[in-house]
Amino acid sequence: MCFHCIPFGQYYLLFMDTLFLRYRKKLDYLKFQESSVSQSNIVEIFEAIHEIKLHQLEDKKISEWKQTQKKLYNISLQRLNIAHIQEAGGIFIDQIKNVIMSFFAATSVIEGDMTLGMMMAMQYIMGKNVVNRKFICMKRKGAGMLTIVPPNP
To answer: Is 27 within 8 Å of 82 (Cβ atoms)?
Structure first.
């Protein structure tokens, strides 16, 4: 039987996450850079509001601010696309793994190597693997470091 595909799916998801980390890191740096430019523009506008009105530079400052906001929006869209691709890929891999395992379990039941109860228990365990996918999704969303508190003796 081919039940060693259970950890393969989880390892593959972790491998794919590490591949996407480099691209997400680059996008995070771009977002931080554009956010700092946006904040600088806002501070500059507030501090020099009298000079801006005096020299009639409102349109220029508004267009600069709109450009930085547009760049921030595009970076956010790219980050959302990456997150969507990762989530869809994870669900796809998990479902393929479940189909393969169900197929092998059903053929084992038909051949008499496994009982129907064993197959149902295996299906229950496969349903519990959703927790692993949620943990990986939480890791992707940047939940930070998880602190595991040991029980008091």
So the answer is: yes
Q: Do 43 and 113 touch, CB atoms closer than 8 A?
A: no
Contact in structure between 82 and 24 (CB atoms under 8 Å): yes
pLDDT tens for each residue of the chain, 153 residues long: 455 555 666 777 777 778 888 888 899 999 999 999 999 988 988 888 888 888 888 899 889 989 999 999 999 999 999 888 888 887 888 788 888 888 988 999 999 998 889 888 888 877 776 666 666 666 656 544 333 333 443
From the list 37, 35, 14, the residue with the least C-alpha distance to 139 is: 14
What is d(CA 49, CA 33) in angstroms, rounded to the nearest whole number?
24
